[in-house]
Amino acid sequence: MSRLFSILVVLILTSFAQSEVNIPSTCRVRNKPNGYCTYASMEIIGRFYKDERLYGLVDHYSQWESRGAGTREVKSCLDHLGVEYKIYEDTSLDWLKYQVDNGIPVIVGCHWGKGSQHAIIIVDLDNEWVKYIDSNDIHHNYWVDINWFKQNFTGWSIVIEKR
């Protein structure tokens, strides 16, 4: 009886545990200079999902255009490939946490230096920290303080639907 109780306690406690999206380094694709970070992030998620339609994006598509054509260009790319996705312009932190807790990586836009933006992949999030993958460094994960993230997050996000 005590063994059954112990098993139930472990199951209950693990059901409340936060999920983290674990994207292996073998799925990661390096960003090219001058703005391919969104395509690299989409290809990383495609490799994580084993969705070959998203392989080769960095080599085949043009750079992100921060002057407003970027979202249109990304939509056009994904529509052409037949990939289901959702793009949001005003994403909440609660929504990001919900996605990550359910095993779904989210590409987000952040202000990155003076007048620059960068796409990163959120893989974990809590009340104090955000864990992300940066396509500029395919070997490491990064943690930033939630306040830094709140200040620099543009609200833009994209979720690639798993096939």
Give the helix/strand layout.
Elements: H1 2-15, H2 37-49, H3 57-60, H4 69-81, E1 85-88, H5 93-101, E2 106-111, E3 117-125, E4 129-133, E5 141-145, H6 146-152, E6 153-160
Antiparallel strand pairs: 1-6, 2-3, 2-6, 3-4, 4-5
Features of this protein?
single chain, 163 residues, alpha+beta, Cathepsin B, Chain A, six-stranded antiparallel β-sheet, 6 strands, 37% helix, globular
Textual characterization of the structure:
The protein is α+β, with helices and mostly antiparallel strands and 163 residues long. It has one domain: Cathepsin B, Chain A, CATH 3.90.70.10. 37% of the residues lie in helices and 23% in strands. It has six helices and six strands; from the N terminus they run H-H-H-H-E-H-E-E-E-E-H-E. The chain has a six-stranded antiparallel beta sheet. A hairpin with a 5-residue loop joins strand 2 and strand 3. About 9% of the residues have low confidence.
Number of helices: 6
Number of strands: 6
Sketch the topology as an H/E string, one letter per element: HHHHEHEEEEHE
Instruction: Count structural domains.
Output: 1
Biggest β-sheet, characterized? 6 strands, antiparallel
Strand content: 15-25%
In spatial order, strands of the major sheet run: 1-6-2-3-4-5
User: Architecture, according to CATH?
Assistant: Alpha-Beta Complex
CATH 4th-level superfamily: Cysteine proteinases
Mean pLDDT figure: 86
- Low-confidence runs of at least 5 consecutive residues: 4-17
Give the overall shape. globular
Helix-strand makeup class: alpha+beta
CATH class: Alpha Beta
N- to C-terminal distance: 43 Å
CATH topology: Cathepsin B, Chain A
Report the helical percentage: 25-40%
Radius of gyration: 17 Å
